[in-house]
């Protein structure tokens, strides 16, 4: 007679054991990803500490000039250039401006999704990478194989450390970059208000108010 319970235990054990190397591979991949994000973050941080301070009451006039400024980030300057090109075109300027602002905001927030995934996924993978070798280590302990137990415990603890380290760094990068993006979007909305033609500004305000509701 087939022992169904033993078959299920064996099946689950095989699934669990087969996940170890994919988890280790993913943790290595996430480590490389967080290093790339760290480099990008450092470059943007250098850019922002070099920005010339600008008083809040002077920023509207600065953006109204339409000229690239060293007081705002490269994202805002690129948005202002795109806004000026739209102003020179014929047709529904207010609709094009609204679409540009929404597309830019959406793209900036979308760029944060990967960091948000790293914050959640890295510690989870670290935990999975801990539990799998713990199971095989306990099995090795039952058989008196101390060498296998030691190896599995090393894997278990290191995967936890790597997963938590990636999650912590990703959370730090996410928190700071989110504040930068909020500041850039605020400046983009201000630039839109300043650079819109007077006759179109009223229509744009109506569209923006309707979108917020």
Q: Which tags fit this structure?
A:
8 helices, single chain, 0% strand, transmembrane, elongated, transmembrane helix, mainly alpha, 213 residues
What does the model show?
This protein is mostly helical. The chain has one domain (15-196). The chain contains 8 helices and no strands. It has helices spanning 4-18, 20-49, 59-64, 74-87, 93-110, 113-142, 146-195, 198-212. Helix 4 runs antiparallel to helix 5 (93-110). It is elongated. The mean pLDDT is 85.
How many beta-strand segments?
0
Overall number of structural domains: 1
- Please give the count of helices: 8
Beta-strand proportion: under 5%
Our measurement of the CA-to-CA distance between the termini, rounded to an integer number of angstroms, reads 67 Å
* Rg (C-alpha, Å): 26 Å
Task: Give a short account of the largest sheet.
Answer: none
Structural class: mainly alpha
Low-confidence stretches: none
Average pLDDT metric = 85
Give the ordered list of helices and strands. HHHHHHHH
General form = elongated
The amount of helix comes to: over 70%
């Amino acid at each position: 007679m087939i022992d169904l319970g033993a078959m299920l235990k064996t099946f689950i054990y095989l699934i669990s054991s087969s996940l170890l190397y994919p988890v280790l591979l993913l943790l290595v991949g996430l480590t490389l990803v967080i290093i790339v994000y760290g480099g990008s973050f450092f470059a943007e941080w250098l850019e922002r500490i070099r920005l010339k301070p600008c008083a809040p009451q002077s920023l509207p006039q600065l953006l109204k000039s339409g000229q690239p400024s060293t007081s705002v980030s490269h994202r805002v300057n690129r948005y202002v250039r795109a806004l000026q090109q739209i102003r020179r075109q014929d047709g529904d300027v207010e609709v094009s401006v609204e679409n540009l602002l929404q597309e830019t905001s959406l793209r900036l927030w979308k760029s944060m999704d990967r960091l948000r995934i790293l914050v959640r996924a890295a510690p989870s993978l670290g935990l999975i990478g801990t539990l799998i070798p713990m199971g095989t280590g306990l099995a090795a302990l039952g058989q008196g194989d101390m060498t296998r137990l030691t190896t599995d415990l090393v894997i278990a603890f290191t995967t936890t450390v790597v997963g938590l380290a990636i999650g912590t760094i990703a959370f730090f990068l996410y928190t700071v970059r989110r504040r930068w993006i909020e500041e850039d979007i605020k400046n983009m909305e201000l630039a839109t208000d300043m650079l819109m033609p007077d006759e179109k500004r009223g229509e744009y305000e109506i569209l923006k108010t309707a979108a917020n509701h």
